[in-house]
């Protein structure tokens, strides 16, 4: 089995420094920073006060500072939001995207484990905290980027995450429109409901407590590729829509109550008969 590598072109990096950095971020983001170590970054979210996702990101330590590996499309907005919350906290926030490159790697487990164990000190090489099957994520200085084994295309990366049922920002959801549970973030290690305060906690915790999971992102299988935005139908009832695709597998945001009501009714998208499956991590 080989190792596949995909250099992520649409990532940005924010550098947070200053004596109040850790405490400042601790009160804002959804994941507990007690899980953050030099060897293992964490995956987290910043929510609106109404509980919708502004951005997802990986948080890595760099000495006493922090690096936020986030979608490039939202980096400026994220920086402005964090600056707004900063008030008198002694924190500096800088966009250093040109200095850093993010890579996703998956495949041969033995080789991946060896890469983690032998990683150079200036590289962040770690198990993807969302889902182990996603593989290994690397964040390192752009000028020191090594030759990577098995470099693949965006289509192959999308196929890998789609078969695992992992939504991605800008593909399956955008800023300030989606609740974390809609895109399975509560099951992808983005939220720690026991951590204490974070922006949007009241709404997120109430949905968790009351079991108000109205939508989930599910895997769709079809005989041929589907169009993004196409409705998923059960007879005349619309269950949801395709959010991203990769060949014959797609992801779709689905209303669970409508899916339950559909029963054994045949499901279609773009006049094709399809099947819906829940990602295995939702079954745990």
From TrEMBL:
Keywords: Transit peptide
Domain CAF17 C-terminal: 214-281
Limits of the GCVT N-terminal domain: 15-109
Pfam families in the record: Beta-barrel_CAF17_C (PF25455), GCV_T (PF01571)
Domain of life: Bacteria
Example of a GO biological process term: iron-sulfur cluster assembly
Alphabetized PANTHER family for the sequence: TRANSFERASE CAF17, MITOCHONDRIAL-RELATED (PTHR22602)
Protein name per Swiss-Prot or TrEMBL: Folate-binding protein
Organism listed in the record: Aquisalinus luteolus
Biological classification of the source: Bacteria, Pseudomonadati, Pseudomonadota, Alphaproteobacteria, Parvularculales
